[in-house]
Amino acid sequence: MNYRQIPQNVGSILPKHFQEWRQSAVDPDIIQANVTSLDGDAAIERLIYALPDSERRNDGRIRDKWLRKYRHVEQGGWWCSGIDLLAFEESEWGCFKPDCPRRDRKKGKPIKYEHPAQTQTELFALRVPERIWDKIAARYGVKRYLSPLALRLRDRQQPVSFWEWIIKHPEIPIFITEGAKKAGALLSAGFAAVALPGVFNGYRQRRGFDGQVAGLPRLIPQLEVLAKGERDIYFCFDRDEKPKTIANVNHAITKTAQLVSRLGCAPRVLSWNVSSKGVDDLVMALGREFLEQVVRDALSLETWQARQYGRLFYPPDLKLCLRYLVAPLPPSAQLIAVKSPKDTGKTEWLSQQVVQAIRNGQRVLVLVHRTQLGEALCQRFGIDYVTAMRNSPTRGVLGIGLCVDSLHPNSQAQFDPEDWHDAVVIIDEAEQVFWHLLNSNTCRKERVSILRNFKALIQNVLNSDEGKVFLSDADLSDIAIDYVRSLVGFPIRPHVIVNDWRPTSGKQVTVYEGSNPSSLVAALVEDIHRGGVPFVCCSAQKMKSNWGTYNLECYLKKRFPNKKILRIDSQTVSNPNHPACGCMNKLNEILPHYDVVLASPSVETGVSIDIQRHFTGVWGIAQGVQAADSVRQALARVREYVPRYLWAREQGFNGSRIGNGSTSIKSLLRSQHKLCRANIALLRESEFEDLDLDFQPESLKTWAKRAVAINHSMRCYRQTIVEGLKREGHQIIKAAEQLEAEQQEIQEELKATKNGNYERHCQEVSASNNPDDRSLELLKEKRSKTEAERNEERKGTLSRRYQIEITPEVVKRDDKGWYGQLQLHYYLTIGDQFLKARDTKVLRSQLDRGEGAIWKPDFNSRALSAQVKVLELFEIERFWVKDATFTSQKLAEWADFVKAHAWEVKAILGVTINHKDSPMAVAQLLLSKLGLKMPFLYKRGKRGEQQRVYGAPVIDDGRDEIFEKWQQRDERTERTEGLQAS
User: Fold this and answer.
1) Exposure string over 739-760, b if 16+ CB within 10 A, otherwise e
2) Closest C-alpha to 672, from 660, 664, 684
3) In 287-360, alpha helices (H)
4) Rounded to 5, what percent of the chain is helix, strand, coil?
5) What residues contact 289, with CB distance under 8 A and at least 6 apart?
6) Which stretch of 309-313, 484-488, 953-957 has the lowest confidence by average pLDDT?
7) Which CATH superfamily is domain 508-651+716-738 in?
8) Contact 139, 295 (CB under 8 A)
9) How many helices (H) and strands (E) in the chain?
10) CB 291 within 8 A of CB 193
11) 233-245: per-residue pLDDT in tens?
């Protein structure tokens, strides 16, 4: 037989092969059109059609080695091929699944699928029956046929083929999956799908003779013809549990998605949290309606990537499923990473490691991000927290605990990493500790010194014979482990312990929707009326927040005057006149005496409330200022299995986003580098040419990884929190709708309560004494303060900030970010000559503290030169010409110029400009950076052609007086520095 002759697909299929495809939810007509049962020579023919002449004998037969290789296929199997998308003819390429597969000699596993030898792989574009074609056309509202004119031009009187039709209609999304059966399942469900033979087969990358990459990656031609016209492309690969497989799939999706993005397409990724591995399994187990929901919930590429950063892909050395953590350690383990759910005894297990370390004569260092957490852990471990060391009999001999803010020589701890060789370092809540280390305001002054010492500490500990570092977190991810490994400076293998225990029936979480938490508060009030004892977690405490701890306390006291209510927040725990003062270490003793407890994020981590049969429920109000993980942490502080109730904003506050708000590491880092270079270039100081702009790139990359995960969670805040709760095993229940009238009444009452409280607060700050400089410094350093002392400190700070009389109105404006807006406006106008000196001082201060290095995010958050320059380039001053008027038509050309630099606007100003924004919207967005707004004046023009006319911003908030004071201040400073220099 001549093995070069390829017979057409005869459409005959054995019942067992037909049933196999049916069990993958594939329509019978699709099976009949694409699958054939083959055996004997016919099976071999499909696999050797592309062999070159050198692999054949003179009579045309293939050499014996190929016959031996494929002898197993003679026993039968099924063959599937589809359409060649370059020629729109039957494709010779396909795959054969043998009934008796051969084994891979290296891996020892059966080779499930055989593909034609010595030819490049293609994709499966299956033949689509008329009925399925109609279903897909109806789904997207697209006609099946070309117009009569198009048909005449093509000289054709019949419809084009299905795949020609798909290519001509980029508004129809394409689904990319792995394996022909999964493409068949998606087509059967009414989605246009193609399949790759493997996740990496969507693109090719040329390599040299040495195997090294010798060119840029490029989509395979059959996929490239589909990736046109801004088409949505959905990736639908298998869900796997193996870390290595997950990493490979993620890499393949990222690479292929980036390539289709360059062609103008919008990549999206399907994911699901059920056990089904492939999309065909998903449909068979849960039906097509579930698949429809999965498609609706598909993630953009950036969002999907951001989610991957918060996962743990390291293969566990020890995998457990225990209610309470018990994990023996090999003596050689030095970097120990522990992921175990909340309330599974991680702290108790760590205390055992501390006992063992002390027995071995090793000092223990406990690093935390909150003082309360550190004090609680040190009490549990039997070592001294740094603030109690002087009065302790052990004086830190066994070890100490401290906040990472103190990892520098000028702190109370006088920290020196050289003191900790062979020590044991414990970092509980590691994800939050590292984020605090890299981004908190409290570390800003000494950040470079702190990071430098932390790196030296890790190297000293892990480079010694006995030193160990423990990372522990219920949400431990690759980010934390990768960060420590990147700091070590030499390869180190982590010992990873994963405890997958989940409660058989998780806590019941009732989720309230709506734009505000009035429905949850209505249910809370009803619960208290019925005798409930709630623990309420709030994300705010300030008086300007309707739903913060302070105003909720006032509101509930009015409604329930006989109830004992305790408010726990950063003010009450440090106010010596408040019953919550010093309560954090004895919550289990104090809380049973109260009927209602209101807690801010100060009770977020490091606290275990183990009271039984007291609280009847935990209620959470998440207003979008905490990270999504922190909300879940707060809800878990009460350990007893009582119901949970949650309201969360749909999206987080813009002010909670990090950097430029991007969910792309590359974009976020690029914006930081660009902004830093721009600010320094504008200073034009020769002394800054040799500064270290590449300080700890591993720390900066870790900052970016965590930042994009937070930015993503802020974009879909409620969804991220709820998904995290589901992963923890909790049962999510949608709350019943509350009466709208009742919600409105509560909202108005709380607003009135807030207005009264906030007005009183602003007046009290305004009426407080203005302390002298020394007294103000002492107030800032004081940890325990009364309310009067806090007001006095605020008055002193505002007086020095604005240099005018501090009225209640000034306090309110400052709470809304007025100071930053005024600074930008001042240096853009009359203060422009002082901007260089101001930013030079900022840079020099950071360089002095950092010994020649700076931390880019901190410097960028304070420097103003680049922001001012961008606003100057956009001629923002045109908007405050007296009596000027503006329309969108008049601003069209200007707005196009701004939109052309949208990336720079986002990177430098933190303002997102959408190409769909009207010219007037663009102008208002930029003016909002200065706290200004153009007022609407009138409409003009004929009916149906009217244009809205706006005027120049009205500046009547008193900023002119402040600018004059600032100018006088800067002139005095300039004269003083000039005299000193001379």
Assistant:
1) eeebbeebbebbeebbeebbee
2) 660
3) 288-296, 301-308, 346-359
4) 45, 15, 40
5) none
6) 309-313
7) P-loop containing nucleotide triphosphate hydrolases (3.40.50.300)
8) no
9) 37, 28
10) no
11) 999 998 887 777 8
Query: What sign results for the dihedral spanned by CA atoms 479, 484, 487, 492?
Result: negative
pLDDT at 1: 31
Q: Quick: pLDDT tens for 91-123.
A: 999 999 999 999 888 778 899 999 999 899 999
In this prediction, residue 573 carries a pLDDT of 83
- Residue 231: which residues within 8 A CB-CB, separation 6 or more? 170, 171, 172, 173, 174, 265, 266
* Residue 210 pLDDT: 62
Please say whether the beta carbons of 706 and 476 come within 8 A: no
Question: pLDDT tens across 835-860, in order?
Answer: 999 999 999 999 988 888 999 999 99
967, pLDDT greater than 90 = yes
* 130 within 8 A of 124, measured Cβ to Cβ: no
- Smallest CA-to-CA distance from 678 within 449, 860, 503, 937 is with 860
With the C-alpha atoms ordered 267, 273, 277, 278, is the resulting torsion angle positive or negative? negative
Higher-pLDDT residue of 738, 374 = 374
Structure tokens at 482: 């990768």
Angstrom distance (rounded) from CA 326 to CA 345: 9
Question: Which CATH class, in words, describes the domain spanning 318-499?
Answer: alpha beta
Which among 457, 379, 354, 361 is positioned nearest to 413, based on CA atoms?
457
128-308: CATH class: alpha beta
Q: How confident is the model at residue 3 (pLDDT cuts 50, 70, 90)?
A: very low
- Alpha helices (H) along 422-495: 430-439, 447-462, 478-488
**DSSP per residue, 874-911:** TTGGGGGSTT-EE-TTTTHHHHHHHHHTHHHIIIII--
What is the pairing mode between strands 885-886 and 731-734?
A: unpaired
State the Cα angle at 258 between 257 and 263, rounded to 5°. 95
Separation CA 341–CA 808 (nearest Å): 47
> What's the rounded Cα separation, in Å, for the pair 943 and 936?
18
Give the span between the Cα atoms of 525 and 522, in whole angstroms. 5
- Where are the strands (E) in 236-324, listed by range? 266-269, 299-300, 318-320
531, 730 Cβ separation under 8 angstroms: no
* CB within 8 Å of 450: residues ≥ 6 apart: 404, 405, 407, 408, 437, 443
Residue type, 188: S
User: By the 8 A CB rule, do 645 and 524 touch?
Assistant: yes
Asked if pLDDT for residue 4 goes beyond 50, the answer is: no
CB neighbour burial string for 568-603, b if at least 16 within 10 angstroms, e if fewer: bbebbbbbeebebeebbeebeebbeebbbbbbbbbb
- pTM of this structure: 0.81
Q: Which of 452, 449, 498 has its CA nearest to residue 344? A: 498
**What is the spatial distance between Cα 454 and Cα 452, in angstroms, rounded to a whole number?**
6
CA distance 296 to 280: 17
Q: What is the dihedral of CA 534, 535, 540, 541, to 10 degrees?
A: 90
- Residue 719 Cα distances to 430, 628, 652, angstroms: 24, 9, 11
Torsion angle (degrees, nearest 10) of CA 544, 549, 552, 558: -110
Sheet holding 318-320, edge to edge: 318-320, 495-499, 335-339, 468-473, 424-428, 364-368, 399-403, 384-385
- Cα-Cα-Cα-Cα torsion 386, 387, 389, 391, nearest 10 degrees, comes to -170
Amino acid letter at 34?
N
Model confidence at 580: pLDDT above 90? no
Cβ neighbours, 10 Å, residue 465: 7
Compute the half-sphere exposure of residue 47: CA atoms within 13 Å on the CB side of its CA.
Answer: 26
